[in-house]
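Report of the visiting student (M.T.), summer placement. My assignment was to run the structure pipeline on a short list of targets and document each run. The first record concerns DUF3100 domain-containing protein.
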Amino acid sequence: MLKQIPEYLKDWRLHGIVLLIVLLAESIGPFSFEVGAGMILILPMIYAFILGVAAVFTPVIKEKQFKHSEILTTALIGLLVAKVSLNIGPALSMIVQVGPAILLQEIGNLGTVLLGLPLALLLGVKREAIGMTFSIAREGSLAIINDKFGFNSPETRGVFSIYLFGSIFGAVFFGLTASFLATFTPLNPLALAMASGVGSASMMAASSGSLSAVYPEMAAEIQSLASASMILSVATGFFVSIFIALPLAEKMYNLFTSRKSNKEVETNEQTEEKKEANQ
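After the run finished, the structure tokens were exported:
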């Protein structure tokens, strides 16, 4: 019977290390501290990531554990897709009631592609830029990229890097931005509350918390709209990422890199011609 069990499921060393890391991370719990009007929230996931990286440099982790962890991670991301789907289903009726406004809000998030991808390429980032810029890189984005490109792809490395960066600094950015817009612009606080729901619970909480501090008399409405917007963004964002944002990011990457390659070829040809002329 045991012979029929896949080797990666019998890797008790890997399972034991993962269990120990999870227990340590959960025992520490979340940690937060304020930065101006924003707040930095350190989740147990960050501790788990650091402990996992540290474990790689110990003799406990061998090449076999690397191979088995890749298989298990791919399988577990399938469960993540199922979890995201469970959140999307109940929100479909709400999406129909809200109408096109929420869809237009989600399409506005394409700014991550239109602005972020060219900047990433200017900074010298390669195909990682696709994973880094096609969304704000939350859980659903991890599932989409891993399913299309595979766990060891540069696109997956890109989306994981932004996922971790956003988990640490995203809430701070949203909290400070919401506070600034509420204080120095004439934008309606309820519109800002709707904009808080980009699909991340921590970012939404930081943004709506800052807005509630500026407009305490509207705190209940702000929290309600922000929460509803977040649920809808998770649902609509999944489809926008698959059918619009990711294809757009790939096409833009191919367009920019092909132009760069053509310029390099032209430059090399001109250099060769000058050398021949000088000879």
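Residues 2-266 form one domain. The chain has a mean pLDDT of 79. I thank the supervising group for their guidance throughout the placement.
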